[in-house]
Model the fold of this input.
Amino acid sequence: MTALTPKTEAELAEIVASANAPMRITGGGTRPIGKPCDGPVLSTSALSGIELYEPGALTLVARTGTPVSEVEKTLAKEGQRLAFEPMDHRGLLGTTGEPTIGGVFAANVSGPRRIQTGAARDFLLGVRFVDGTGQVLRNGGRVMKNVTGYDLVKLMAGSYGTLGVMTEVALKVLPKSRHTGMLALTGLSDTDAVRALSRALASPYEVTGGAHLQNGPDGAPLTVIRIEGFENSIAYRADELQKLLGAFGTATFETDADRTTQRWREIRDVAMFHDAPGDVWRISVKPSDAPGLVAQVPGAEALYDWGGGLIWLRVPEGTQADTIRNAMQATPGHATLIRGAAGAGAFQPLSPAIGALHDGLRAKFDPKGLFNPGLMDRAA
Amino acid sequence: MDMPNPNPLILARKAKLIERLEAVLPPEAVIHDPSETRAYECDGLTAYKCPPLAVVLPASTQEVSDALRICHEMDVPVVPRGAGTSLAGGALPTEDSVILGVAKLTDVLETDYDNRFIRVQTGRTNLSVTGAVEEDGFFYAPDPSSQLACAIAGNIAMNSGGAHCLKYGVTTNNLLGVTMVMMDGTITQIGGAFLDAEGLDLLGLICGSEGQLGVVTEATLRILHKPEGARPVLMGFDSSEVAGQCVSDIIKVGVLPVAIEFMDRPCIRATENFAGAGYPDCEALLIVEVEGSDAEIDEQLETIIEIAQSHNPVALRQSSSDDESKRIWLGRKSAFGAMGKINDYMCLDGTIPVSQLPYVLKRIGELSQEFGLDVANVFHAGDGNMHPLILFNANEPGQLELCEDLGAEILKLCVEVGGCLTGEHGVGIEKRDLMLHQYDPADLEIQMAVKDVFDPGWLLNPAKVFPLQSSDARRIAAE
Done:
């Protein structure tokens, strides 16, 4: 089926206003997460272009169909970046096409630096969106601090197109670090690795990445810690962290920018699972709960990011959602099926009270039930 | 500033209401004697006062739930109150409302350094959250200037910021989970000691909703290890434009200071008379603070000073010791006290794009002359959050109104240049009727629709945030 690709916000609003059957809302279509709806595809990919960029104010405003690559290129020219390091899902999901900045926020996609600098939602300052009746609405603005009325900006971030179709986003950007370095420990058990990461993250040395691969490139467990900043700072902090982590073995210090960048891109994009078969779950928990949870799932391989707080879990294809949900029963957190046969159970079931709030909000924002009806299911 | 007339039917139900509240709460937790309820007649916006029908001070989430359920069943509006430090009238009661204060909910419930969070009851003050973890080297980052007194409940309601949010973010960026009681008494959990709560971002929605969606009784907050050290540099310039340009250049070069604070001449003079911090007498002064080890601090300050030099500063003072740092911060930290000493003042809170700083300061100067009221500026320059202080004499008839009119003009100016009405204080009643300058009616309608979902009867803090004429239909339907 051909996608509807309106070229202007007004055109998009017109399509929504006259629609009366469910639609599949997408950006670049590179992150098909959860059960897609059967209706026509409505894509924001033709709403493209950066509308404002003020490096001195750390703000950028873009139409939601703007390719992430275009935003990143523009920022790089001024030595700035998307600090929350959004993942590129194409490798993991085997999709093609161009990831859009709107898609990044619709799915609240944040990478390894999330533990230090915040999630995508923390960088979203303002939105324009079309609600389910075809009205163009806006919330927030383009300034860093704004408590004028309810924060619907946060609500739109991570709503997977279920509340409205975003047409424009204003975001906060940050300067790129001048230098980057990485400490590596090998051979740690999951439990020790998370302990080591916790110790590094609970230090004053501003760790901007903390990950553990059960199977590193040479097959042995690999624990990595990223530090960024001025050159001398990095050397100093690496030294302090090496002392701090002494009990976990001798941490090697990698200063080569390319190798460090490459390693963290692989972690960000979960590269180790790209060519490995099976379903992939994304699980957010308290870091110290993570190793115990992973141990409960038979046949699983894990990549721990966010100091252990984010688990990328590869399980045999067709593993029932219940297997994961049952394992999590005693563990606060949430799990989402990112790669696998999308049943109705991809998203974390909600408690009845929270589920009722979801339903209520969706009915207000999208009274005709047009937007991605199968996503973010409430069924507990 | 108008408030809705009290509903006589609710006033008539007072005795029954008290009886029912006293049946579920300890006797000292229900206050209804007019001589005692007076203590709750206003918050930090003292120009507006009204004693409530009653005050309840529950000591547990269950008691909060019981109190809310009874008010819900009896259709009585509830105004949640943290520590009552709001500068926007967020906790201002109406005659027919019950104040629900969280002052007795002050416990630390859980501290976890490995996973870097603390779980507290929300009546606890902001500073005492840090107080609970600082011996072990940790802190809670958001630091509103009222942090000694203000409660976490109010911080969440207003999404409070502070001087250091340029680096660490505001409340919403540091809040991991809440226990929230809905108006009908339902107790809900959202998020927890893990990142990014499941489902729609209700945590983000609740934060900054000014007590209109639910009463948050417990909060899981992110804590961080304290930096090894922090030191500021102070610089003076002979024009605000140059100072503004310097701020922009510092941000662009890639150093991320924890704070960039700005003061103009009227403010510098007032604080000098008050605190004697030894500030230079100049048009504009910046305090820029960076963190790290000693060597890291030196490296960053060197870069910042290099930029400052290129703008021909009239004064430059780099701190090399704790003592010097304290002296540099002394004037800034006593600025509000200093202004209060010489005058009554109203503190505004608009945010603007940093690039508009020089233009906005110039326009504020012009408006100040037009209205015949002095305005002093002291604010967080790094994020464009301005705090113009309008000086007036509250005892002179008509001056408060004149001051409010000037305030409204300044806030409209902030919106015109691409900013907003309030960066960290909240809308409350103070900026309620200006909301249509920032948002179209449909933009406010969808926000009110959100309240419809959480509080269909419009009983929670109903006369705040939205212009009264916009929320009229809903509030009247609820009666």
Chain A has three domains: 9-175, 179-268, 271-339. The domain at 179-268 of chain A is CATH 3.30.70.2190 (Alpha-Beta Plaits).
